[in-house]
Amino acid sequence: MKTQNLKALTEEQQKAYLDMQHIIRINRKPRANRKVPEVRTHEYCLNLISKATTPRNKMLLELVYFCGLRVSEALNVSVEDINFKEEVLKVMKGKGNKQRLTPMPKPLMIDLKQWLSLENIVAGKLFKIKRVQAHNIIKKLDPTMHMHTLRHSYATHVYEHTHDLNKVKDLLGHENIGTTAIYAHVSTKEKKETIKGVFG
User: What is the pLDDT of residues 21-60, one digit of tens each?
Assistant: First the structure.
């Protein structure tokens, strides 16, 4: 598209066009190691979380899924990072020690407040466990899943609701939208499978 034609579009149309062009470039030069991530439905994720064997395990799974966190990010969350008034969570990314603010859904805030009160946690890190222990929590509930599957599912569900890769990019803390673009492929794949299931 010529520059003068692009300027004639609304800001939202320009963003959608540029996003699509970026995805097209990615498809032309696919990475050998780029795999379509596994995702689960929203209902499946909620059901899985409800089966957690301890309040702590349930809280960890909720944080990962409801905020789209990496395991390392979830394990680094401290009481000081939680802002119930603004309904946001400060997330520290290990790589580059960068931070972002992630919205906390109301169901998560309700459970988080109750859990903090139950455990009498008033300061410091929420979880004093190692990454391997965190991964084992979800493996015991579903051997086919990984903790990162919850993050993938979060991203896919957000994209399906917003159809805005930039929003997903910011929520996940990605530096490059090319990393986020994979979730557009996941969404399209599921839609195709749905139509195939209905019409053959």
Answer: 554 454 444 444 556 678 899 999 999 999 999 999 999 9
Q: Under 8 Å CB-to-CB from 67, ≥6 apart: which residues?
A: 74, 89, 91, 102, 103, 104, 108, 154
Which residue segments constitute the domains of the chain, with CATH numbers given? 55-185 (1.10.443.10)
Radius of gyration of the chain (CA): 19
Q: What is the pTM of this model?
A: 0.74
* Cβ atoms within 10 Å, residue 180: 23
Please identify every residue annotated as catalytic. 70, 95, 148, 151, 174, 183
Q: In what order do the strands lie in the sheet with 98-103?
A: 82-83, 88-93, 98-103
List CB contacts of 111: < 8 A, sequence separation 6 or more. 58, 59, 62
Q: Based on the number of CB atoms within 10 Å of its own CB, is 129 exposed (0-12), middle (13-18) or buried (19 or more)?
A: middle
